[in-house]
Amino acid sequence: MKKTINAQTKLLGLIGSPVGHSLSPMMHNHLLGLLDLNYVYTAFDLKPELLGDGVKGLVALGARGFNVTVPHKEKILPFLDEIEANAKIIGAINTILVENGRTFGYNTDITGFKKSILRAGFSPKGKTVSVLGAGGAARAAIIGLSELEAAVINIINRDQERAQTIIETYEKDAIDNIKNIHTQDTEEALRQSSLVVNATSVGMKGYLSEVSPIPGEYLNNGIWVCDLVYNPLETIFLKEAKRNGCIIIDGLDMLVHQGADAFKIWTGVEPPRQEIKKFLINQIANGY
């Protein structure tokens, strides 16, 4: 149903830069209308140098909560009052709840990622997997893969110091099966992997959308390939993987599940997840 904003409407939102590509405002506002909840969700293009001021401003304005996307997922931690355990291990936040003027940080990317690959039919238990990237999404995917008992988790990232930082951080929490793959060893590592996850922004609409993060020929026939980018649904990376006979998982299910988990944190209401997915597929098909 169509909602009217009034003096009791509570504020939710997304902070990041850029945010113009995001489906989160449409997704959450659709749900809020469907469930007749008096909130509104909007997107704020918040530059990195204004991050602290932006968080203070949203709290001062009485926001109930907000999502966090690139490039703020890691840099936002010092500005929060409390951080849940897994988010603290990861060192990245994607969801913030504001209660009585205090900010609570969560990472729903972990559960969103786990649900997306399991529901697609892939189990990482006992397998070698590779993650492309070393940012907040990659950190969440690595924790998810560890919780699902992957045998070896390769990190493939141009900045190997950043990848090494993840390994050293996670070793403190007894996660000791992560490898930092050197650039020259990328092809060999990928050919030994049962699952390859793109956790970079490469391929996203409006950002290197005609590029794949790795050469498609590095992907073996029959392996699973997952792209956390959800717009477009089928990135260049996934198209090349499909041509090579790989089984592909797009980023939409992760968006749906991490978004639904965040929605429940803010509102206390469990949203209809299949309805979210149907709505988003329709929006993307219509060219958003």
Task: Describe it.
- This protein has 10 helices and 12 strands.
- It is α/β, with parallel strands linked by helices and 288 residues long.
- It has 2 domains: 10-107 and 255-285, Leucine Dehydrogenase, chain A, domain 1 (Rossmann fold, 3-Layer(aba) Sandwich); 110-250, NAD(P)-binding Rossmann-like Domain (Rossmann fold).
- Helix 4 crosses helix 5 (136-147) and helix 9 (252-267) packs across helix 10.
- The model has no long low-confidence stretch (mean pLDDT 94).
Summarize the structure.
The protein is of the alpha/beta class and 288 residues long. It has helices at residues 24-34, 51-60, 85-90, 109-120, 136-147, 160-171, 186-191, 236-243, 252-267, 273-285, and strands at 10-16, 39-45, 65-68, 82-83, 95-99, 102-106, 128-132, 152-156, 178-181, 195-198, 224-227, 247-249.
What are the defining features of this structure?
single chain; 288 residues; alpha/beta; Rossmann fold; 2 domains; six-stranded mixed β-sheet; six-stranded parallel β-sheet; 10 helices; 12 strands; 37% helix; 19% strand; globular
